[in-house]
Amino acid sequence: MLKVKDIHTFYGNIEALKGVSLDISEGEIITLIGANGAGKSTTLMSICGITPPRMGEITFMDQPITNMKPDKIVSLGICQVPEGRRIFPYLSVTENLDMGAFLRKDMNHIKTDMEYVFDLFPILEQRRHQPGGTLSGGEQQMLAISRALMARPRLLLLDEPSLGLAPLIVRQIFEIVKKINTENDTTIFLVEQNANLALQVAHRGYVMENGQIVITDAADRLLSNEDIRKAYLGM
Ligand code: ATP
Questions:
Q1: Which of 56, 96, 130, 166 has the CB geometry, 3.0–4.6 Å to 7, for a possible disulfide?
Q2: Is the pLDDT assigned to residue 102 strictly greater than 80?
Q3: Which domains does the chain have, with CATH numbers?
Q4: Distance (Å, rounded) from C-alpha 82 to C-alpha 103?
Q5: pTM for this predicted structure
Q6: Residue 192 near ligand 1, beta carbon < 6 Å
Q7: Is 53 in the pocket of ligand 1 (CB under 6 A)?
Protein backbone atom coordinates (compact mmCIF):
# COMPACT_ATOMS: atom_id res chain seq x y z
CA MET A 1 0.00 0.00 0.00
CA LEU A 2 2.73 2.48 1.01
CA LYS A 3 6.34 2.26 -0.12
CA VAL A 4 8.97 4.63 1.25
CA LYS A 5 12.23 4.24 -0.64
CA ASP A 6 15.51 5.68 0.59
CA ILE A 7 14.17 9.11 1.61
CA HIS A 8 16.38 11.93 2.87
CA THR A 9 14.60 14.80 4.62
CA PHE A 10 16.27 18.00 5.74
CA TYR A 11 15.52 20.94 8.03
CA GLY A 12 17.79 23.54 6.43
CA ASN A 13 21.20 21.86 6.49
CA ILE A 14 20.25 19.28 9.10
CA GLU A 15 19.64 15.86 7.60
CA ALA A 16 16.90 14.42 9.82
CA LEU A 17 16.23 11.32 7.67
CA LYS A 18 19.28 9.64 6.18
CA GLY A 19 17.90 7.14 3.71
CA VAL A 20 14.74 5.71 5.29
CA SER A 21 12.96 2.82 3.56
CA LEU A 22 9.86 1.03 4.76
CA ASP A 23 6.70 -0.54 3.44
CA ILE A 24 3.20 -1.05 4.71
CA SER A 25 0.70 -3.56 3.32
CA GLU A 26 -3.03 -3.08 3.33
CA GLY A 27 -4.63 -4.19 6.61
CA GLU A 28 -1.46 -4.01 8.72
CA ILE A 29 -0.69 -2.14 11.92
CA ILE A 30 2.94 -1.08 11.62
CA THR A 31 4.78 0.69 14.39
CA LEU A 32 7.85 2.91 14.21
CA ILE A 33 9.66 3.11 17.53
CA GLY A 34 12.77 4.97 18.63
CA ALA A 35 14.18 7.47 21.08
CA ASN A 36 13.52 11.21 21.20
CA GLY A 37 14.80 12.96 18.10
CA ALA A 38 15.37 9.73 16.12
CA GLY A 39 13.28 11.05 13.21
CA LYS A 40 9.91 9.35 13.76
CA SER A 41 7.72 12.46 13.38
CA THR A 42 9.78 13.60 10.40
CA THR A 43 9.06 10.26 8.74
CA LEU A 44 5.32 10.78 9.19
CA MET A 45 5.49 14.39 8.01
CA SER A 46 7.48 13.33 4.95
CA ILE A 47 4.78 10.80 4.05
CA CYS A 48 1.98 13.33 4.37
CA GLY A 49 3.77 16.06 2.43
CA ILE A 50 4.43 18.54 5.26
CA THR A 51 8.23 18.11 5.12
CA PRO A 52 8.79 16.57 1.66
CA PRO A 53 12.00 14.58 1.26
CA ARG A 54 14.83 16.10 -0.79
CA MET A 55 15.77 12.68 -2.18
CA GLY A 56 14.07 9.30 -2.44
CA GLU A 57 10.56 8.24 -3.37
CA ILE A 58 7.21 7.58 -1.69
CA THR A 59 4.36 5.76 -3.43
CA PHE A 60 0.83 5.11 -2.18
CA MET A 61 -1.28 2.49 -4.01
CA ASP A 62 1.40 2.55 -6.73
CA GLN A 63 1.03 6.31 -7.23
CA PRO A 64 4.02 8.61 -6.57
CA ILE A 65 3.21 11.09 -3.79
CA THR A 66 6.73 12.32 -2.98
CA ASN A 67 6.15 15.95 -3.86
CA MET A 68 2.39 16.10 -3.66
CA LYS A 69 0.67 18.81 -1.59
CA PRO A 70 -0.69 17.65 1.81
CA ASP A 71 -4.37 18.25 0.91
CA LYS A 72 -4.02 16.11 -2.24
CA ILE A 73 -2.40 13.35 -0.15
CA VAL A 74 -5.34 13.49 2.30
CA SER A 75 -7.77 13.20 -0.61
CA LEU A 76 -5.98 10.00 -1.72
CA GLY A 77 -6.74 8.45 1.69
CA ILE A 78 -3.78 9.19 3.99
CA CYS A 79 -4.67 11.03 7.16
CA GLN A 80 -2.43 12.00 10.08
CA VAL A 81 -3.23 12.47 13.76
CA PRO A 82 -0.37 14.80 14.72
CA GLU A 83 1.63 14.71 17.94
CA GLY A 84 -0.05 16.98 20.51
CA ARG A 85 -3.49 16.38 18.91
CA ARG A 86 -4.03 19.91 17.55
CA ILE A 87 -7.79 19.89 17.72
CA PHE A 88 -9.68 23.18 17.24
CA PRO A 89 -10.09 24.37 20.87
CA TYR A 90 -12.95 26.84 20.26
CA LEU A 91 -15.00 24.55 18.04
CA SER A 92 -17.38 22.01 19.56
CA VAL A 93 -16.75 18.28 19.34
CA THR A 94 -19.19 17.91 16.40
CA GLU A 95 -17.70 20.93 14.63
CA ASN A 96 -14.22 19.41 15.01
CA LEU A 97 -15.56 16.19 13.49
CA ASP A 98 -17.16 18.12 10.61
CA MET A 99 -13.77 19.68 9.88
CA GLY A 100 -12.35 16.15 9.47
CA ALA A 101 -14.92 15.50 6.73
CA PHE A 102 -14.16 18.81 4.99
CA LEU A 103 -12.63 17.31 1.83
CA ARG A 104 -15.32 14.67 1.38
CA LYS A 105 -17.96 14.80 -1.29
CA ASP A 106 -20.19 11.91 -0.13
CA MET A 107 -22.21 14.07 2.30
CA ASN A 108 -24.84 11.36 2.87
CA HIS A 109 -22.32 9.06 4.62
CA ILE A 110 -20.97 11.68 7.00
CA LYS A 111 -23.77 11.23 9.54
CA THR A 112 -23.24 7.45 9.65
CA ASP A 113 -19.51 7.97 10.17
CA MET A 114 -20.17 10.39 13.03
CA GLU A 115 -22.37 7.73 14.62
CA TYR A 116 -19.52 5.23 14.13
CA VAL A 117 -16.98 7.41 15.96
CA PHE A 118 -19.50 8.09 18.76
CA ASP A 119 -19.87 4.34 19.01
CA LEU A 120 -16.08 3.96 19.36
CA PHE A 121 -15.81 6.80 21.89
CA PRO A 122 -19.19 7.24 23.66
CA ILE A 123 -17.72 9.98 25.87
CA LEU A 124 -17.43 12.21 22.79
CA GLU A 125 -21.16 11.92 22.14
CA GLN A 126 -21.86 13.02 25.70
CA ARG A 127 -19.55 16.00 25.16
CA ARG A 128 -20.63 16.77 21.59
CA HIS A 129 -21.60 20.42 22.24
CA GLN A 130 -18.54 21.14 24.40
CA PRO A 131 -15.61 23.18 22.98
CA GLY A 132 -12.69 20.86 22.12
CA GLY A 133 -10.30 22.85 24.33
CA THR A 134 -12.30 22.02 27.46
CA LEU A 135 -11.88 18.24 27.02
CA SER A 136 -9.37 16.22 29.04
CA GLY A 137 -6.09 15.15 27.35
CA GLY A 138 -7.43 11.64 26.73
CA GLU A 139 -10.71 12.95 25.31
CA GLN A 140 -8.79 15.33 23.02
CA GLN A 141 -6.76 12.38 21.73
CA MET A 142 -10.01 10.49 21.10
CA LEU A 143 -11.35 13.54 19.26
CA ALA A 144 -8.17 13.88 17.17
CA ILE A 145 -8.40 10.21 16.12
CA SER A 146 -12.13 10.56 15.42
CA ARG A 147 -11.61 13.71 13.37
CA ALA A 148 -9.06 11.83 11.23
CA LEU A 149 -11.51 8.91 10.81
CA MET A 150 -14.12 11.36 9.50
CA ALA A 151 -11.90 11.76 6.43
CA ARG A 152 -12.40 7.99 5.81
CA PRO A 153 -8.67 7.28 5.53
CA ARG A 154 -7.33 4.07 4.03
CA LEU A 155 -4.07 4.70 5.89
CA LEU A 156 -4.16 6.35 9.31
CA LEU A 157 -0.90 7.84 10.64
CA LEU A 158 -0.78 8.20 14.42
CA ASP A 159 1.99 10.27 16.03
CA GLU A 160 2.54 9.40 19.72
CA PRO A 161 -1.09 8.88 20.75
CA SER A 162 0.06 7.93 24.27
CA LEU A 163 1.91 11.20 24.93
CA GLY A 164 1.04 12.69 28.33
CA LEU A 165 -1.88 10.35 29.03
CA ALA A 166 -2.61 8.15 32.04
CA PRO A 167 -1.83 4.42 31.50
CA LEU A 168 -5.49 3.39 31.71
CA ILE A 169 -6.52 5.88 28.98
CA VAL A 170 -3.56 4.82 26.84
CA ARG A 171 -4.69 1.17 27.03
CA GLN A 172 -8.22 2.20 26.09
CA ILE A 173 -6.98 4.17 23.06
CA PHE A 174 -4.75 1.32 21.89
CA GLU A 175 -7.68 -1.11 22.14
CA ILE A 176 -9.69 1.22 19.88
CA VAL A 177 -6.75 1.48 17.44
CA LYS A 178 -6.88 -2.33 17.10
CA LYS A 179 -10.65 -2.15 16.63
CA ILE A 180 -10.37 0.50 13.89
CA ASN A 181 -7.88 -1.75 12.11
CA THR A 182 -9.96 -4.92 12.26
CA GLU A 183 -13.54 -3.60 12.02
CA ASN A 184 -13.01 -0.62 9.76
CA ASP A 185 -10.33 -2.10 7.46
CA THR A 186 -8.05 0.84 8.13
CA THR A 187 -4.31 0.34 7.77
CA ILE A 188 -2.39 1.96 10.61
CA PHE A 189 1.10 3.43 10.93
CA LEU A 190 1.77 4.10 14.58
CA VAL A 191 4.71 6.17 15.79
CA GLU A 192 5.39 5.64 19.49
CA GLN A 193 7.90 6.10 22.26
CA ASN A 194 5.86 3.64 24.33
CA ALA A 195 7.47 0.75 22.47
CA ASN A 196 6.06 -1.95 24.72
CA LEU A 197 2.41 -1.11 24.06
CA ALA A 198 2.96 -0.26 20.41
CA LEU A 199 4.59 -3.65 19.75
CA GLN A 200 1.72 -5.40 21.53
CA VAL A 201 -0.85 -4.04 19.04
CA ALA A 202 1.30 -4.00 15.88
CA HIS A 203 1.91 -6.77 13.35
CA ARG A 204 5.40 -5.54 12.43
CA GLY A 205 7.75 -2.88 13.69
CA TYR A 206 10.61 -0.66 12.54
CA VAL A 207 13.21 0.66 14.95
CA MET A 208 14.73 4.03 14.18
CA GLU A 209 17.99 5.54 15.43
CA ASN A 210 19.55 8.78 14.32
CA GLY A 211 17.53 9.21 11.13
CA GLN A 212 17.88 5.60 9.96
CA ILE A 213 15.97 2.33 10.30
CA VAL A 214 18.22 -0.05 12.23
CA ILE A 215 16.00 -3.12 12.70
CA THR A 216 12.71 -4.37 11.30
CA ASP A 217 10.89 -7.54 12.28
CA ALA A 218 7.58 -9.05 13.36
CA ALA A 219 6.31 -7.24 16.46
CA ASP A 220 6.40 -10.35 18.67
CA ARG A 221 10.01 -11.03 17.69
CA LEU A 222 11.00 -7.43 18.45
CA LEU A 223 9.28 -7.77 21.83
CA SER A 224 11.45 -10.77 22.70
CA ASN A 225 14.69 -9.37 21.17
CA GLU A 226 17.23 -8.87 24.00
CA ASP A 227 18.76 -5.68 22.50
CA ILE A 228 15.34 -4.10 21.95
CA ARG A 229 14.23 -5.06 25.44
CA LYS A 230 17.27 -3.37 26.96
CA ALA A 231 17.25 -0.26 24.75
CA TYR A 232 13.52 0.47 24.37
CA LEU A 233 11.51 -1.59 26.82
CA GLY A 234 13.50 -0.81 29.97
CA MET A 235 13.92 -4.52 30.83
P1 ATP B 1 10.17 12.93 19.31
O2 ATP B 1 9.71 11.62 19.78
O3 ATP B 1 10.90 13.71 20.35
O4 ATP B 1 9.12 13.73 18.58
P5 ATP B 1 11.20 12.06 16.77
O6 ATP B 1 11.82 10.69 16.69
O7 ATP B 1 9.82 12.19 16.27
O8 ATP B 1 11.34 12.61 18.24
P9 ATP B 1 11.83 14.21 15.00
O10 ATP B 1 10.90 15.16 15.67
O11 ATP B 1 11.46 13.66 13.69
O12 ATP B 1 12.19 13.00 15.97
O13 ATP B 1 13.26 14.93 14.88
C14 ATP B 1 14.35 14.38 14.11
C15 ATP B 1 15.51 15.36 14.12
O16 ATP B 1 15.16 16.53 13.37
C17 ATP B 1 15.91 15.85 15.50
O18 ATP B 1 17.31 15.97 15.53
C19 ATP B 1 15.24 17.20 15.62
O20 ATP B 1 15.97 18.06 16.46
C21 ATP B 1 15.27 17.69 14.18
N22 ATP B 1 14.12 18.57 13.89
C23 ATP B 1 12.81 18.25 14.02
N24 ATP B 1 12.02 19.28 13.66
C25 ATP B 1 12.86 20.30 13.30
C26 ATP B 1 12.67 21.64 12.83
N27 ATP B 1 11.44 22.13 12.64
N28 ATP B 1 13.78 22.37 12.57
C29 ATP B 1 15.02 21.86 12.74
N30 ATP B 1 15.28 20.61 13.18
C31 ATP B 1 14.21 19.82 13.45
A1: 56
A2: no
A3: 1-77+156-235 (3.40.50.300), 88-152 (no CATH)
A4: 18
A5: 0.92
A6: no
A7: no
